[in-house]
């Protein structure tokens, strides 16, 4: 015949939780024993086991112990309403985790962080917006930046994608020449192509070109961005090639 009361070791064996967890639940008044023996041993009846299983279920549903304490005081219908809402919360978290996993896989595969859609469903601004705000903060008062901003605003989405795609193709071509001297005709021809594409957005004088070259070389984010084109030296190579183009 089965025992009418369960000891702590019985609960541990049935549920898999630890004795320490049971003692903690008792201390915070979440799950108390049905009886205490004269020696202070905790005993639980079968209905207590059902309550514990409900607690463990709610904990798996991502409720805090404080929330679980409050939920257990509600009617079954009130509990169902809370669980329906929690279902939606968990669905949002699932979608968020899926986005994070895709971004993580892309980053591990070599994509630059600026291309990842990691902050699109977050209170943190997407990286492209962060970069735009940073540029506005640093260059917002310059004529070149104002021209750049106005040009972007007048371009359609397709036109923007085309311009940025063209620039990426130029970077790939330059990356294939990274073993050459930056002053060679082929490299300088590609730098002229890069400048021509840049001119679609702004008027670039020698000072601005030097500033861009300096950013490529010394901003770690640009070094990381250029790594996706296959060579860790590309940022330094671009700096040297642009500076040669300015000074020749």
Q: Strands of the biggest beta sheet: in what spatial order?
A: 1-3-2
Give the ordered list of helices and strands: EHHEEHHHHHHHHHH
Summarize the main sheet.
Answer: 3 strands, antiparallel
End-to-end separation: 98 Å
> Mean pLDDT, as a whole number?
81
By DSSP, the count of extended strands is 3
Strand content: under 5%
Helix content: 55-70%
**Over all CA atoms, what is the radius of gyration?**
31 Å
Q: Structural class, from helix and strand content?
A: mainly alpha
Shape: elongated
Report low-confidence residues grouped into runs of 5 or more: 131-135
> Helical segment tally?
12
Describe this structure in words.
It is a single chain. The chain is an all-alpha fold and 248 residues long. The chain is built from 12 helices and 3 strands. The chain has helices at 8-15, 19-27, 46-60, 65-71, 76-108, 127-139, 143-154, 157-175, 185-198, 206-218, 220-227, 234-247; strands at residues 6-7, 35-36, 42-44. Strands 1-3-2 form a 3-stranded antiparallel beta sheet. A hairpin with a 5-residue loop joins strand 2 and strand 3. The longest helix has 33 residues, at 76-108. The model is unreliable at 131-135 (pLDDT under 50).
Features:
three-stranded antiparallel sheet, 248 residues, mainly alpha, single chain, 3% strand, elongated
Write the layout of secondary structure elements.
Blueprint: E1 6-7, H1 8-15, H2 19-27, E2 35-36, E3 42-44, H3 46-60, H4 65-71, H5 76-108, H6 127-139, H7 143-154, H8 157-175, H9 185-198, H10 206-218, H11 220-227, H12 234-247
Antiparallel strand pairs: 1-3, 2-3
Helix pairs in contact: 8-9, 9-12, 10-12
